[in-house]
Design goal:
The structure is a homodimer. In chain A, strand 4 and strand 5 form a beta hairpin. The radius of gyration of chain A is 23 Å and the shape is globular. Helix content of chain A is 41%, strand content 14%. Chain A is of the alpha/beta class. Chain A has 13 helices and 13 strands. The two termini of chain A are 20 Å apart. The first copy, chain A, has an eight-stranded mixed β-sheet with strand order 2-9-8-7-6-3-4-5, sandwiched between helices. A three-stranded antiparallel β-sheet of chain A has the order 10-11-13, with helices on one face. Chain A has a two-stranded parallel sheet with strand order 1-12. Chain A folds into two domains: 156 residues, Aspartate Aminotransferase, domain 1, CATH 3.90.1150; 244 residues, 3-Layer(aba) Sandwich (Aspartate Aminotransferase, domain 2). Chains A and B meet through helix 4, helix 5, helix 9 and helix 10 of A and helix 4, helix 5, helix 9 and helix 10 of B.
């Protein structure tokens, strides 16, 4: 398809008919493909089936019977593996339940109800603002909205959030209490934060003494094309005496089994002590059998990295299909652009302004379910209506090929409709 | 040992010397027995070792792959078992993570931050008061204190809380927002709430429209000597149009493995809808592999009840030792009284006023760790200082025999010290 700008009205109308027909053909296939979430495909899950086989010894290295109560913050051997994976000292790690999202939620709840390190509980303040990178993760936004935190969108550049803007807002307004973001292979753009961005986050001056960076490091080891490495934000923050600023979250949801993995939070000593004290009121401890099974299955961090290479080998052809289809269909006609992540779970597609909702709607009507077009923006509001998240992991290869054809068809049709002022 | 009141000063002093010597002999044994918590013993845990063997099919009855994301409120087959066990419709059940305590905590956090069913969030109110049965569960009290809820102690009678007092306080003061209690085999007294008490809880008028009864039904199926059955509070509450008043919690922590069991909350339709909506922001779902393993291991509620009889067979001799030792040592001299629960995990011992702390202190110095003497009261404050919680489940039989001898010795010594005004 040529560029729209070069077409006459008649040509546009002819193309509209052509692509509507193409789209209707797809519609008749009565597809039912769910690409709405970053769910691993079943081949990825099969890699961890050893975990389903159970364990024959239920003692941890310090001879604790993991079948009984106790050990609030996690088994030492589980901490050790996370420590090696993420380059954070074991003493700065608390192992949680099955969900990093839940750990983030609990952190916000504590900040609202109790405050942190002697500061006023956020629920007692007139207003609390949180910086949100856009596009970003819809569940983060839903959480901030739920907790009544005002979200301020900050554009995500190629090397991370617009740090000039982050620094300015954080310094000028003490109601700005933090930033929530995914620093490696960001959801949904796949952005890798540069060393400079990480250092500026660690270094910047903030008006709020209880400013917090919620680093959802969900894809910390989820490389596909290239192994990118984040600068060590804890070491940098310590250098600038801002170590209490960082909460980092990680889970094995996309390493082993989503929903039955192991989540963790890493933070400074003071933060860890505070969280442990509060957590001791909330629970007696998390599932240690799960923690031990994980250790018995993987044994060490190296084996996890090998496992992640197997995951990458399954994901890469899927990402290839998406990128190749987009290049073939849109490489020259400027109807859309897209990100080319080195890892993570998503590719972000930028349509012509005002077309994203229509693309998602058309795709849905043709049986391809994608994430809502606004959902990668706070309050579900992308003023440009140009952003679509593609999650290639869940469908089988053949399904994905078809889905990408459908999506491409939808993009063409929506673009022509837009040009014809039919949207 | 005869009654203290019948002794002369010289007799008291002679007995003091005698029991101090006896106590010091125990001290020299350098024991190290932990009876501080209601931890199951390892023979109880062995009953569930089948759970460690894993599963060979990872599909739920509706063919969901439990290894992947989804199913916020729990697998249908898991709900079915809880429904059969507790006589609550499946639609009124949400399956949680590994900890009922955590579900209670989350409920309080939601009430504080969001309120319920359109009522003002509790954190926006000047004062929120919660009725607490005394003696009661220390972790409930710690939680109320953490959340800044003012605890009002309500005496626990033989058939449950003093309902005249509960009704009066709940009707007269709209800052009284609820009551937290363990209705069957209460921690620590083993009290069974009578049908009348349950009906009054369901029926009573309350000043606060968002009054809530937090029923921690931790020992719902944990019978030992006799199978007591609670009246169905949900049906009663519905009859009096108070069905939104009830939150009921249960977990398999003391059915299978503490810390890696399955927790649940039961509530009215409106409450369940509200919780699910809020929970959908907090997590994508809880550990479904754990839920499925549980179902595959037990298959149905009947098998769980048989399993609980095996648990009872292990616990009964331990409760027997405690009761028999106390009857032998204190049956006639009135130095203490005690509860004789039909089930649950605890026996409560009432010493002479002002002796409980001394008993716990002496026991600790002789290597027998018990729960802190005040801890079964809000703010750790039992004005009479007369209550000691005995948790017989964790020690081996021989250890428990020794521990009960030590505790008896401590009671005698503390009682004589008290009589001699040495305390």
């Amino acid at each position: 398809m040529p560029e729209l700008k070069s077409m006459s009205k008649d040509e546009l109308l002819a193309n509209y008919d052509k692509y509507l027909k193409e789209y209707n053909n797809y519609k008749e296939m009565k597809l039912n493909l769910d690409m709405s979430r970053g769910k691993p495909g079943s081949k990825q899950l099969d890699l961890s089936n050893g975990l389903l086989e159970g364990i024959d010894d239920y003692h941890s290295i310090n001879n604790i019977d993991v079948r009984n109560y106790g050990v609030l913050d996690g088994l030492p051997e589980t901490k050790k593996i996370f420590s090696d994976l993420l380059n954070v000292p074991e003493k700065n790690i608390i192992i949680g339940g099955n969900s990093a999202l839940n750990l983030i939620y609990d952190t916000f709840a504590r900040l609202l109800l109790f405050g942190t390190l002697g500061n006023t509980p956020w629920s007692k303040l007139q207003k609390v603002k949180i910086l949100c990178t856009v596009p970003g993760y819809d569940r983060h936004f839903a959480m901030c909205e739920e907790f009544g935190l005002e979200m301020i969108p900050v554009p995500l550049n190629e090397d991370g959030p617009d740090m000039d803007m982050v620094e300015k807002l954080s310094l000028e307004d003490d109601a700005v209490k933090g930033i929530i973001c995914v620093p490696l292979y960001s959801n949904p753009t796949g952005t890798v934060y540069s060393d400079e961005v990480i250092e500026r986050l660690a270094k910047m001056k903030t008006a709020a003494p209880d400013y917090r960076i919620f680093l959802d490091n969900a894809y910390a080891i989820h490389h596909i094309y290239k192994k990118n490495k984040l600068a060590n934000i804890f070491e940098l923050a310590e250098k600038y005496k801002n170590e209490d600023r960082i909460y980092m979250y990680f889970s094995t949801s996309k390493v082993t089994f989503p929903g039955s993995g192991i989540a963790m939070i890493a933070a400074s000593q003071k933060n860890i002590e505070e969280i442990k004290k509060r957590m001791s009121i909330q629970t007696i401890g998390h599932n240690k059998i799960n923690q031990l099974s994980f250790v018995k299955f993987f044994k060490n961090a190296d084996n996890i990295m090998s496992h992640m290479e197997k995951q990458a080998a399954i994901l890469k052809p899927k990402f290839d299909i998406v990128i190749e289809t987009l290049e073939k269909e849109f490489g020259e006609n400027k109807l859309c652009t897209w990100t080319k992540p080195d890892g993570g779970y998503f590719i972000t597609l930028y349509t012509l302004d005002g077309c994203a909702k229509e693309v998602v709607k058309l795709a849905k009507e043709a049986g391809v379910i994608m994430t809502g077009a606004g959902s990668t923006y706070p309050y579900n509001n992308n003023p440009k209506d140009n952003c679509v998240r593609i999650a290639p992991s869940y469908p089988y290869m053949e399904e994905l090929k078809t889905a990408m054809e459908v999506i491409s068809s939808c993009i063409k049709l929506a673009s022509i409709k837009k040009e014809l002022k039919m949207l």
